[in-house]
Amino acid sequence: MELRQLGRADYAHTVQSMQDYTAARTPDSPDMLLICEHLPLYTQGLAGKSDHILNPGDIPVVATNRGGQVTFHGPGQVVAYPLIDLQRAGYYVKEYVYRVEEAVIRTLDHFGVTGHRVAGAPGIYVRQDDPHSHALLPQRPQKREGNAASVPNFEGLGKIAALGIKVSRHCTYHGVALNVAMDLEPFARINPCGYAGLQTVDLSTIGVQTTWEEAAQVLGQQLSIRLAP
Prior knowledge:
Elements: E1 2-8, H1 11-24, E2 32-37, E3 41-44, E4 61-63, E5 70-73, E6 77-83, H2 86-89, H3 93-110, E7 116-118, E8 121-127, E9 157-168, E10 171-179, H4 212-226
């Protein structure tokens, strides 16, 4: 996988470049991983509802073609965009999502933090009272009985990484955002990922002091490992 560190990148330009690459790529085109951060903006996914944007103020709201609802991007957040040919890699979308989440979990583990999945809610979460605890969550994904979908339960949790992807011609773009050390106030002006009252955290608020560069390096390494064919 070809890794490109973009630094602080314009969101619209980055999305356009991902779309152009995905549209033009051939079975021989290399997979790529773009890592960057963005200036403050809200992005609204295809499933997004306008009433989840409560008070954007002077922060731009950008409609985008990834899955999911509304989220916030800003400085101090590592955004990773894997451009993967799933057909060539040999796994399906559900497995791809699992692998991306696993890369975030392993990245958090590098910093001594335990990341968790929550049934019915993509992304990664941490215990706010004890982010280092390895105890399993009662609301973790488990084998379902019947066809009843899980209702997400965020009690005691903070969301530290948001996931939103697009797959076109078996190829992925958009990706995952890991909160490192950022201004979290703008998350209070939306229903993050469509959930009213969902708490958002970053590494700094749970006591981990690191740099954007270190977090980006670890996440990039983990994604390269976990997304390999």
